[in-house]
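Appendix B, record 7
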Amino acid sequence: MNKRKTCITVSAIVLAALTAVCVFLLCGRASREIIHYQDMKNRAESIRISESFNSRLQAIEDTVDKNARAMGEMPTLTLDYVRTYLKQSLAEYNKEQQVVFAMAVAFHQDTMSGLADPVMIYAHYKEGKIITSTYGDSFYHYPYHPWYCVPQYLGKTIWTEPYFDYDAGNILMTTCAAPFYREINGKKQFAGVVTADLAVTQMQRMLNSHKDHKFKFIFLISQFGKLLSHPDISKVMAETIYSIAFERNATALSDQFRADIEADKPGVFTTAQPMLGIRKAELYYVPLDSNDWTLGMIFDHKHYQQQTRGIRILIIIAGVVVYALLLTAVVIFSRRLQRITQ
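Structure tokens (predicted):
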């Protein structure tokens, strides 16, 4: 009888140890598989969201380019024609949803003959209606603003970094601007800039419209790391992707982020210290094709804990059941063995 009890006790200890090791290994394997699966899913989601957002920016850019071509190809430009054209273009683009806040045509001083100063025609929304305003250079020195001089200098369409538009009600805006050219005295010359203004809050609404993902935050980053949009508006243009990270994060993130952005490829960075109020997270980032911006997405590691908790509980329960069955088998076998030996 003592031998049987000893055998059962030893078997119980051995089985418990083996079951615990198997449960531990299975829990680790399940956690790694879940993390790998979620990472692959996050990468695919980051690409999908960036492509969707990029297509909306590209649609705005295409409209601006179309307006620039129209300004360059019209035989004769008049202020009345430009006003009418801008109102129609703004209404046409926003017929389904008001995305673009305003559109404008800013002329070079040699483009419109008979005018003492270069002028800008500005079409925008006011109390739900589209109205136009005319600004002379003596009132608004637009040739010195980046949205005008940068396209003129580069000769291509650009997106400006966000800025506060005080005339529009102190709204944080970004501008898509394209130069246009006309034949003057038989030569193709720079004639002005066509623009479309988009509120940063509208850009963030575009990003937040994507619901079927696990990201905590989605925001825009400039080519220099500045936050161009963020759910917390106080961080926009006041913080960079490096300043919101602790020192250990910032150093490693700076090297990896800049290398990937220069190579025009997406990437993922795992934080070593808290970032944006999240203790441990992963930053997924994807460069946008339409401009020099990057789309950033923060994934909280708490989702891994939530996903693995249920699996671990099931594995532990299964381990206890298997242990109980094996121990029962040992007890039954030892009883029969005792009868045989007797």
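Remarks on this record: Helices lie at 2-73, 79-93, 146-154, 200-208, 247-262, 302-341. The first strand starts at residue 102 and ends at 107.
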